[in-house]
Amino acid sequence: MxxxxxxxxxxxxxxxxxxxxxxxxTTSHLCPVCAAAFSQQQATEAEDQAQDKSAVKPTSxxxxxxxxxxxxxxxxxxxxxVCPDCEMTYDEFRKVGRLGCPSCxxxxxxxxxxxxxxxxxxxHHVGREPGMETLVSADPxxxxxxxxxxxxxRTELAQAVEDEEYERAAQLRDQIAQLQVxxxxxx
Amino acid sequence: MSLEGLIxxxxxxxxxxxxxDGIVISxxxxxxxxxxxxxxxxRMSEDDQRKVIxxxxxxxxxxxxxxxxxxxxxxALDANERRVLVERHLISPxxxxxxxxxxxxxxxxxxxxxxxxxxxxxxxxxxxxxxxxQQTWAAIAALDEEITGAVxxxxxxxxxxxxxxxTNTGTGLRASILIHLPALVLTEDMERVLQGLNQxxxxxxxxYGEGSNASGNLFQVSNxxxxxxxxxxxxxxxLRITSQLVxxxxxxxxxxxxxxxxxxEDKVWRAxxxxxxxxxLSSQEFMNLLSAVRLGLTMGMLKVPAAFINxxxxxxxxxxxxxxxxxxxxxxxxxxxxxQLVRQKLTEVSDGQ
Lengths: 187, 353
Ligand SMILES: [Zn+2]
Ligand SMILES: [Zn+2]
Prior knowledge:
The complex is a heterodimer. Chain A is mainly alpha-helical. Chain A folds into 3 domains: 1-53; 57-127, no CATH class; 146-183, no CATH class. Chain A has 8 helices and 2 strands, in the order ββαααααααα. Chain B is built from 12 helices and 10 strands. In chain B, the strands form 2 sheets. In chain B, strands 2-3-4-5-1-8-10-9 form an 8-stranded antiparallel β-sheet. In chain B, strands 6-7 form a two-stranded antiparallel sheet. In chain B, helix 3 (79-87) packs across helix 11 and helix 8 (231-277) crosses helix 9 (283-298). Chain B is globular and about 65 Å long. The chains are: A mainly alpha, B alpha+beta. Bound molecules: zinc ion (2 copies).
């Protein structure tokens, strides 16, 4: 019933991927993993647009230009990486799309983080931990003041600097500056 | 609790509460969790699978939220019983069809459930009616606290909850709504709305059918990313998008009424007439007619309760009809039986008014 990804034929295709080259337009249906692998450029574009969280406007949408295909991993990297606990190789993971065990996350840390970043736009979890106490009310949340968003961005910035991800850090700095301007009282 | 008892009662999420005049049917949040000391499901031995089931059931026994819950092992159910659970949104098609030791634990009103040994060891799920996303989140977070607090959970400081597929890593959270958007489909605005949502990192798919050609005009909207945002932010984002979609749908309905009121009324009442009198109803035709009747409810033309429409949607599905008939039905028999069932229920509901 559901459409499968045209690339891996395993996961559900949730993304319509349009490639424009001259007058030729090709549309393929991909899963998030394959779509992420196909273009980092698209992820950046989507991130730019996601910043305008104000509305889902039913206005016309421009087709994305995609002409770069990015592989996950160099050949030597793929060969040498094996999970010590379940013996899965990174190559095998790429074929089946599922990790073998929790230790795979450590064994494949480097390429996996790149992949996670392309899928989610982040490689840092900021949510719950196991057994964490719940402090949620059934009331609707208060209007977004932008204050906690600022805090979150600052935390991400510190992390980005620590990880020496300067491109990301620069992006975050811009976002923070933007928010601070919006928050400033009208003089 | 037995499965026979199940088919005659609608699940609590179909009650029609807070449903924005019939537009938002239900809201669901699921969390993917794994136990630390076992391989992920695709690489597990049956022995490991049994151990995981035992550990999870032991943890759930102490849960205050699962005191009315029953556990069903997939291997103890026949194919139709498993499909009944799929039709009630309690299990995934792959849990129904996979091999090995796996099962489902769910509470009596079906608002909370735990799939064991699906793609992840645990898939916790809460479903509530209408736009009750905050209540859904509160319920699932409380269950998560009890269960992940009692087992050794696969978790990493930086990456959060570790899942078999990297599309679920982090929060492991997928929040979704089931929404009816007939006017946006009719006015051909749906394609653009779909693309707009995609860019906000939300996925939309037709629930019965593909993309914007969904039959019954029912769509599921869910978050794409699970890493980098808190659970609360994801749920709030879904709520925000839901209320925007409801606004767009209502606007589209108003412009339909302005431009073609009599045609719209005719469409609604014809659908009602066909449902009330047809002798053969394919599932596709039924879903489309039911969509028109639901539109009539949202526009205030018809006084059919939303809970009734919701229940019809489940009661007329193949496995539910076969369970009621006590045997398998071929497609032609199903179409006859579907028409009969709908006629009978519609008579009941109009007599009751
Ligand atoms: Zn794929
Ligand atoms: Zn492993």
